[in-house]
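Regression check, adenosine-5'-triphosphate case 756:
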Amino acid sequence: MLDRRHPHITMPDVPPAMDAEQAAVEAHARDKELTKHHFEPHEHPCVRIEHLMKTFDGETQVLTDVNLTVWPGEVVCVLGPSGSGKSTMLRCINLLEKPTAGHILIEDNEITGHLGTKEVNRLRQNLGMVFQSFNLFPHLSAKGNVMIGQTKVLKKSKDEAEAEALKQLDAVGLLDRADFKPAQLSGGQQQRVAIARAVAMHPDILLFDEPTSALDPELVRGVLDVMRDLAENGGMTMIVVTHEMGFAREVADRVVFMEGGVVVEQGTPEMVFDNPQNPRTAEFLGSIG
Amino acid sequence: MRAAHSHRLGRLVIACVTALVALALLPSQAQALTTEKATARPNEDGGTGVIGGMPTRLTWEGFVEEGEAITSVTLTLPEGASFDNTTTKVTVLDDLTRIPNDATATPSGNTITVQLSDPAKEGYKLRLEIEGMAFPPEGGDVVVTGSYESAGKKKDLAPSKPIATIANTWLQQMVSFLDAQPWVQAWNQNQFLGMFMKPQLVLTSLFSLFPGWLVCLGIVVVAYPFAILLGLVFALMKISKFRVVRAIAVVYINVLRGTPLFLQIYIMFFGLPMMNINIDNNVLGVIVMAINSSAYLAEIFRAGIESIPTGQYEAAASLGMGRLLTMVNIILPQTVRRVIPTVTSDFIMAFKDTSLLSSVGVMELMMFSKNLTSVTGNMTPYVTAAIFYLIVTLPLIKVVSTIEKRMAQSERGGGPRPKAKGKESGAEADDAATRDEAKGAEPSMVEALSAPFKAGTGVFGGVADAR
Ligand SMILES: Nc1ncnc2c1ncn2[C@@H]1O[C@H](COP(=O)(O)OP(=O)(O)OP(=O)(O)O)[C@@H](O)[C@H]1O
Ligand SMILES: [Mg+2]
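Current build output:
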């Protein structure tokens, strides 16, 4: 397959996406050992990434061949050195980046084909994202930030959206900051508002891209607590790119180690942290811990 | 008999009527002192008008017709005029020869009586110059009437041609007051002060330039909303996905920003009438200013939109917002806040640029001050015009700097927040951390945060400066 804009790059021929039933059967067999999450025999994975490839400007190949399945309610932590393509993979899942080749299927629906803008927007409603730099809307209050997606996208009434916003702000412990502007909040508080904003859309899956990396050490705890609560009590499906090893070990059902644009190793936290199979994983964990 | 009687009666009636008509005509026929001239010296500061209620000089000339010997003349002005404390110069002329005469003038309110020592004879001309008299303060056309005595008989003078006088307003009184002040006289003695800041002219021009100032404000205030709308349209066109749309916007913006406003004014004001399109000068001024400003505003808006971090687009997208929703709800509200100082600066520019419209005859501030300067031969009206411009621009300049300062502090959290070094930053308790505490604990961070916005406004400033 040739990229029309960059004819000097040859795209690998990627096999078509697997049949849903067959994929589920294979995933069951493979993931049984790799995750602490309990899934039913009839369940299908809610995210399926097959041979995902991403090239920037037709030159820098960031993702070479990523394969991953995520089960409903599972918490997956993605580790890896800087530049290994963790963010890029996450951003491909909600199409903030357009995958170059390969397949991403959300609830067995392929999103890597040609989607209209309406379908893309519908998809993104269903995939909440929390950014490293929070990306709150500075002209809106904390409450306004949580409300705007509900009123403008979900077309909820103002009262409904406000009630939901206050509920979510309460859940992240910021009810008393509802009327504060982002500039008046600490980094940790801003990130918790950002989580409330994503959760208020009631997505099926939440994507976190290093949510605590921009925070002062003493502010990290509060954000992680909110995420842990979402994972343990909310039953939320979460894909978390993080450098917080403690969080990954305690909360994750599965830890995924990425390097050079591929998933090098994955397994339960115990498997990956205590007995890494790949020397690169061992080296990385050694350098961190 | 009866017929003869009635016939005689008829003749009598006719004779009576004839006599009556003759009587009625008699005074005009027998007019023996003809008013030849009645004028007043202008007493308007720097002008040509005659102001009521203020000292001036009345010059009256009469010609003595045949069979007369004038011994006295009485001039009467309407109620309110005053001959009190006047000095009157009486000249009796026989053609060009002065005839000596000891005359005495007796002023009394709005009349003055001049008694001649020797009667003025036929063919003589009588000239009265009454210095220090004043016309009625309410102004209007004033007619000199009166009477004269000729050989012991008193006759009426025919009314003179009217003298146009100006009402003496409180402004005129202020000017006369200033005229009389020693410090004003000393001030005006100084060549610079007298030429550029003559107090009397400052005062009067404040009033006479006011309509021009209103025209300037009116033009720019009406034009600006249109300019903002047009500018927004072209800004959005310039960041459009479609190349043709972008190209149209680029041409529009670059042509308007790349040519002088002066030229654009000439093209519009002289070009349109040649195509038989005649638009009122003020309306055309509004159109030119709106079109010109829209190009600058388009660039300001575009720069503002592009200064919003991509994180904002991504956050909106991750909530499922489409392009339009994102623009309207997320990007434009933030853009508006960011561009307010730059737009205000551009408004200041546009307001000052209305002065160029004077070159095509729009009656705005510059035009008024130019006219007044050429009438008075004094630069003060220009200085007054400067005051008028500054009344608008100085507060706006202050507003711009205040907003810029405030914005540097308030807009945080929209994009990446610099990671503070753990050791350097003070302990920031998560839940207690409010804006003030953060400021107190990490002043360096506040500065770091404001930096991108300062840089941003710098860019906009460049846009405005290019003008
Ligand atoms: N928009 C882009 N254009 C070009 N190259 C990009 C772009 N985004 C990312 N890259 C490159 O892709 C590589 C992987 O980036 P990515 O952000 O996915 O890494 P990461 O694993 O998230 O690293 P980190 O831990 O530092 O966040 C990097 O080398 C980066 O320079
Ligand atoms: Mg990253």
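Comparison notes: The interface with chain A takes residues 309, 311-312, 314-323, 325, 329-330, 333-334, 337, 409-417, 419-420, 422, 425, 427-431, 433-435, 438 of chain B (CB under 8 Å). The longest helix of chain B spans residues 199-238. No diff flagged against the previous build.
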